Amino acid sequence: MPNVPGLRSPYLKVGRLVYFGRMLDKIRLHAAGKLPPDYVGNLGKGFDLRCCSFLRVPYDELKAHVLAHSPSDDAALAWAEQRGGTHTDEECEVWCDFLMKRGWRDPAGEILARRIKESGLEGKPILTMFDYLDFDEGRDPAATRPWEG
């Protein structure tokens, strides 16, 4: 897939959570007609669904709130936590660790291997789905190490 301006790495955090900011980017880009068609079919599914399930907020409600109120990323997260309840630091750590390692020695590994091949990314240091997303969109997570930010 191409580099999508305005779509951040899944590794980058909003508050204590990875991926949440990327989901917000996808919501906003789609509403602006700037999200590539390849992404549209997965809106509210996959990692989006997992993130909303963790937050205990339905994706459609989060999407409606973000589009109606144009909140900052931090304000959108605060709204979601108010609706679904807050999480402990440990719960957030476990969530982040789970998502950042998805595809590495787990059932998603088969999907990851297939996507790497389909995208012609064999030989890249891709260990997880987050790595794959970054390489597929033209970022090199091994060089930039976004999980340290």
Keywords summarizing the entry:
149 residues; mainly alpha; two-stranded antiparallel ribbon
Fold blueprint:
Elements: E1 13-14, E2 17-18, H1 20-31, H2 37-40, H3 46-55, H4 59-69, H5 73-84, H6 89-100, H7 109-118, H8 129-136, H9 141-144
Antiparallel strand pairs: 1-2
Rg over C-alpha atoms, rounded to the nearest angstrom: 15 Å
What would you call the structural class?
Answer: mainly alpha
Unreliable parts = none
Look at the structure and give the mean pLDDT.
94
Q: Strands across the major sheet, in which order? A: 1-2
Counted by DSSP, the helix tally is 9
Q: Compute the number of strand runs.
A: 2
- Please give the share of residues in helix: 55-70%
Largest sheet: 2 strands, antiparallel
Q: List the secondary-structure elements in sequence, H or E.
A: EEHHHHHHHHH
Distance N terminus to C terminus?
24 Å
**Structural domain count:** 2
User: β content, as a range?
Assistant: under 5%
Cα shape: globular
Structure write-up:
- The protein is mostly helical and 149 residues long.
- It has two domains: 1-87, no CATH class; 101-140, no CATH class.
- 56% of the residues lie in helices and 3% in strands.
- Strands 1-2 form a two-stranded antiparallel sheet.
- Strand 1 and strand 2 (17-18) form a beta hairpin.
- The radius of gyration is 15 Å and the shape is globular.
- The two termini are 24 Å apart.
- The relative contact order is 0.16.
